[in-house]
Amino acid sequence: MEAKTPRRPRRYLRSRITRKLILDTALKVFLSEGYAKTTIAKISQQAQVGYGTVYSHFKGKDDILNKVVDNVLEEFYNLLEVPFAPENQEEARSAYYELVLTSFRLAEQHRPIMKVYQEALGQSESIAAHWENIIGQFIKSSARSFVYSQDKGMAKDFDIQIGAKAYILLVDRFIWEVVNEKEDNLEHITTVIMDLLFHGFFKTGK
Fold first, then answer.
1. Does residue 133 belong to any structural domain of this protein?
2. Which of 115, 124, 133, 142 is the most buried (most CB within 10 A)?
């Protein structure tokens, strides 16, 4: 006789549904009102849930916006979880290219909410800290890939932490260029960044 899969309590399911409702509603409010004019009261009113219910799921407006942006970046986070294990430079370049191009495409696809987030970055310390943490995670991931590439004999001998930081901050800068519609040829930007990365950090013909 097959063992039955444990069922989630109904209270848990209701909580998940309410949480998603709040996030979906908050996204709409942020897009229509911008960061500064969005309030918990407006979110709770439009979601038709109690003011206290919103606070039972989130710490406040900044926490909600951070979660909304985390959902936007989920595709990119999933790519970061794929093990970096190229056998040669061609495979390495392909992996880096996909990561960078995906980040630009997400910025373009979700430009409206990213513009709201950019507004928030200039007004909220907690939002700025959250983005710094995201950038920090990307730098750590990049550093691990550089270590792998050096161990495989593909990359030159360089300061990995500085190299990873320079690479990610460059990508970060162009993400906001895409958000602000100052760059629209995403493939071209990605190719140029790859040229800089591989001519600067990687050995020739490996």
1. yes
2. 142
**Residue 134 contacts by C-beta under 8 Å, 6 or more apart in sequence?**
73
CB atoms under 10 Å from CB of 57, counted, come to 18
Selection from 151, 161, 135, 154 nearest residue 95 by Cα: 154
Q: How far apart are CA 103 and CA 141, in angstroms?
A: 14
**Residue 205 pLDDT class (50, 70, 90 cuts):** low
Residue 3 has pLDDT above 60, yes or no: no
Q: What is the mean pLDDT of the chain?
A: 93
Per the domain annotation, does 162 fall within a domain? yes
55, part of any domain: yes
**Sequence-distant (≥ 6) Cβ neighbours of residue 13 within 8 angstroms:** none
